[in-house]
Specification:
Elements lengths: L8 E6 L4 E6 L5 E8 L6 E5 L1 E6 L2 E7 L6 E7 L4 E10 L2 E13 L5
Length: 111
């Protein structure tokens, strides 16, 4: 199954001020992301994706960052243009997680 978002680039804007430019591979198995605003501004990465269609035009997308300590999960609703994200990362006394809601749109250069 090739997800509907495959081959497209989106701008994701989250409730904590984070903005990401996410470019998905043509087969939907890889993501190149770049943080353009918010707490991770200036950072970027390329990751392998795990994808499951969980509803009509709705996908659960997850990955492990290159640092192998940070995990990210998205529920992307392509009909409503909304995204819910949960990411986990290490802190001094163990791990923590953050849940965020946002919206997304096609990037202007996505033609």
């Amino acid at each position: 199954m090739v997800p509907l978002f495959a081959g497209h680039t989106y701008i994701l804007t989250f409730d904590n001020g984070a903005v990401f430019h996410n470019a998905y591979s043509a087969d939907g198995t890889e993501l190149h992301w770049q943080a353009t605003a918010g707490p991770l501004s200036g950072q970027s990465g390329t990751v392998a994706l795990n994808v499951a269609e969980v509803g009509s035009e709705t996908y659960f997308v997850s990955w492990i960052e290159a640092d192998t300590e940070t995990t990210v999960s998205h529920v992307m609703d392509l009909s409503a243009w909304t995204v819910h994200a949960f990411w986990t990362y290490p802190v001094d006394n163990g791990r923590t997680g953050e849940l965020h809601a946002g919206t997304f749109e096609l990037a202007p250069d996505d033609g």
